[in-house]
Amino acid sequence: MYMTKVILGLTISLDGFAEDINNSVKKLYPDLDTLRDTNVLKESIISTGSVVMSKKEFSMAEDPNSIADSYEYQVPIFVFTDKAPKKHPKENDNLTFTFVTEGIKNAVMQAKAAAGGKDVTIIGSASTAQQCIKAGLADELHIDIIPIFLKKGYRPFEDIDNKSINVERIKVVALPAGRTHLRFRVK
Questions:
Q1: Greatest CA separation found in the chain?
Q2: How far apart (Å, rounded) are the C-alpha atoms in residues 83 and 19?
Q3: Could you point out which of 59, 98, 113, 162 has its C-alpha 20 to 30 Å from the C-alpha of 71?
Q4: What are 151-178's pLDDT values in tens digits?
Q5: By the 8 A CB rule, do 144 and 180 touch?
Q6: SS3 category, 45
């Protein structure tokens, strides 16, 4: 029987930043169009039953109403936030939004229940990754490294309360545009 895994996914620069000094991830995705055509993303889309993200990641969409029609993951999305938006974004038959005000743990718990036996993918920024690691929520880390140096910004593996985490490498894939995809199982 398959057990739902919680996967923390994020992209970092070669010097370890998940966001630049302006909280932007734009420089980490120069290859977004080709990334969508990779087996790595296609496999993730197929195995994901629900997504968790913070309000910050949700707000990166210029038009939240466009997410329902264009987002790769057409699954229930759980957005952890201090406050739900006044206007609920557009949804469709597959992609729904639940705004969770009780923190990332509660969002992951709800996402597991909605995943239908598939995986829960956490879309990670530096802060989201830190919260996920501190709470011990991730079963796997899926980290893409882009060969650029941001020099300043926000690192996902800092400020994790000196928590020692043992991982086992389970996959390495070279992708177009110099992107390297790494998968680790959290022991």
A1: 45
A2: 23
A3: 113
A4: 999 999 887 776 678 999 999 999 998 9
A5: yes
A6: helix
41 Rama class: left (phi>0) / alpha (psi -120 to 50) / beta: alpha
Supply the DSSP symbol for 149: -
Q: Which fold has domain 6-186?
A: Dihydrofolate Reductase, subunit A (3.40.430)
CA 133/CA 27 separation, integer angstroms: 24
CA 76 vs CA 38, 43, 109, 139: distances in Å: 23, 17, 13, 20
pLDDT band at 92 (very low <50, low <70, confident <90, very high): very high
Helices 126-134 & 104-114 angle (0-180, nearest 10)? 80
Letter string b/e over residues 7-44, b meaning 16 or more CB atoms within 10 A of that residue's CB: bbbbbbbeebbbbbeeeebebbeebeeebeebebbeeb
Return the closest-CA partner of residue 54 out of 107, 120, 90. Answer: 107
Domain ranges of the chain: 6-186
